[in-house]
Every structure is written in structure tokens, then in C-alpha cells.
Amino acid sequence: MERTLPYVNAFGTVDISSSTNVGEALAMAGVDWEVVSNKIFDESGNEIPGYRANIRQDTGDTLGIVSDRYQIVQNYEAFDFVNELPLEGDFKFESAGIFRGGKSMWIMGSLPEVNILGDDISNNVVFVNSHDGSSGVKVMMTPIRLICSNMINLATKEADRIWAAKHTSGISHKIDEARYTLSLADKYMEKLEEEANRFTEIKLADSEIEAIIDKMFPVNYDVDSSRKINNIIAFKNNFFACYNEEDIKKFKGNAWGAINAMADLIDHKLPGRNTSDYYANHWSKLINGHETLDRFVKEIRG
After folding, report:
1. 253 FRET partner, CA 20 to 30 A, in 51, 127, 143, 278?
2. Can you give the residue ranges of every domain in the chain?
């Protein structure tokens, strides 16, 4: 069953697969602009001490108000260590884009595919840099089950899925950061496979899955609106529609099948209201760890 992820190219995502280095990737994605720091003033024209405005140089847009101790890390600086990842058959650039006008931006690449329980998994890594003070440089594992294009972003106790990357100078430090990234990526995928095997040992009847969803989204028929009630009923119906798809059949009746069905539902969820920033926000939730999937997995784990 082939499906196209709804967020692909829906909010300015750019294909950078022909890039051979970060500079090319940023230029191709149109995010090779720089950020400058400006003083800020009150209504009377007095400078506000202790704070600066981060300004996107090409458009003049304000990306964030930050402490005057905040150090701007330009996009090319943030991702410079990615140039030290092995590009010969190991790491490939895939896509890039921005959130909220450039307050943060991301590059996605892929490492060699892995096979988990008979499924080919695309081993994707997303690198994020922000300019609004919300975070530093982050690296996030975002494995995708290729048969259905579902992100399997599961938190594990034994391996980090998201970690901070250091802004380093000097080739030896950049190489060290690249090696560190590869080691954590390998460890996460190894532990994800172990988790998948454990989840197949957890048997779940349809009634047990429905009970978990009811716990996550409780309904009070006496006070809740008909819209809320109908939305939750539709959510459950859509979940079981995903759960009964052909690609889930071999995992039917265990927790791994239920988790993949929930990932399917969440990843391909269409907007209730198709706002201009829906897909960007949705993509951000997916790569950072969607709260609904996280809660569902937590309930299964007990």
C-alpha cells in the first residue's frame, strides 16, 4: 500500500537530494541567508537593555527577541559538521525547509536502510537550527516504515532519539561531532529493533486497544458537545481502518501492529481546518515526537 505523506512539498519543502555538501543544500533550499542582531527600543525610542532582536537579513523579518548573551549560530555554521558525515553511500541529503518564516529551519538526510521485523525502514536524520531562542542545534532520528510511509518515532529508555549537536570549530571537532552523531543514530536504530521485538510479544485484543483510546480521549455523554463526541468516534473508526490495512496484517493482535496503525493515522491525518501553517506545524510535531503517539505507546507499556 503506497501512500504519499501529506506534508511533502506542502509548505515549502525542497528536494536537496543532489547536494554534496551543506552549502549546496542550504542554497538549494533557499535558506542560505544570515541572521543579524539588532538593538531594540521602546515606544519612546529608548534602547531596551539586555535584549536584542534576531533579524533575517534577506527579508528584514524579526525571528526572535533574545537575551543580549544569545549567540547567533548561522545555518551554515550549525550544520557544518554534517559535511563530515560519510557521503559515499552512507549519508545522503534528502530535503529541507523552514518553520514560521525562518524562526527555525531543518535539513533531512538518510543513512542506509535497515530491516526491522521484515519491513524496510528508511533511516532518516533531521537536523534543526533555530533563531528565536527556542533551542540550539538538534539532531532527531525519524525512521520511516517504507511500505506505508509512516514515521516510527518512538522514545526508548536505552537510546536517545533527539540530542543536541555542538557548534564546533576546527576540522577535528567537526569530525568528532559527525562520529558522535553516527554512533547515536546506530544505537537508536539498534534499540528500536529491540523495542519492536518486545512489542510483538505484547498481545492486544481490539477491545483492549479501544479501552486505551477511550482512556486517552474520555467522553462524557452528558456534558460533552456532539462535535467532540463525533470527533472521537471518527478517530477510533479511522484507527481501526488503519489497523485493518494489508500492511499491518502480519502484526495484527500485538502492540507493534497497534503502534504502526496509530502512526499511520497520525502521519496522514488531514486537517480539520486547512490553515496556511497546518502542514508545517504537523511536520514539526511528527519529528519532535507526536503527543498522541507518545501517549498511546506509554499506555501500552503501562
Report:
1. 143
2. 14-32+72-197, 35-71, 199-301
